[in-house]
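Propose amino acids for all 114 sites.
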């Protein structure tokens, strides 16, 4: 992925997810995220003070995406039990696509190790 003028913060979050997905969270550094995004190793520090701040942004992005998925699932049909089932299916789908988001959101030790 190469960053081409636009939303650098979003590009860095996306690069973080790709790094976690392909190489695991231990490889994640701001320098590596910058490299994957196609920017200088110093560029990520304009948006994130450290790895912890980056992981918090990744988790926040994930919670926002999950919220949108759940809201959309409950609007696609009747309320009640059927809506609850659709929300459950949306949650499970979100957990697997991509799992890196879900992992950062819910693995407390991942966020604490940064």
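Proposal:
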């Amino acid at each position: 992925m190469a960053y081409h003028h636009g939303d650098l913060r979003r590009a860095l979050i996306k690069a973080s997810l790709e790094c976690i997905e392909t190489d695991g969270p231990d490889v994640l550094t701001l320098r590596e995220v910058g490299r994957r995004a196609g920017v200088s190793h110093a560029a990520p520090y304009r948006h994130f003070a450290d790895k912890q701040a980056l992981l918090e942004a990744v988790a926040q992005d994930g919670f926002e995406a999950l919220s949108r998925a759940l809201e959309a699932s409950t609007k696609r049909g009747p309320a009640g039990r059927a809506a609850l089932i659709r929300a459950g299916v949306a949650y499970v789908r979100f957990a697997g696509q991509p799992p890196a988001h879900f992992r950062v959101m819910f693995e407390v030790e991942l966020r604490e190790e940064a």
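DSSP finds six helices and no strands in the chain. The helical segments are 8-23, 30-37, 51-75, 81-96, 99-106, 108-113.
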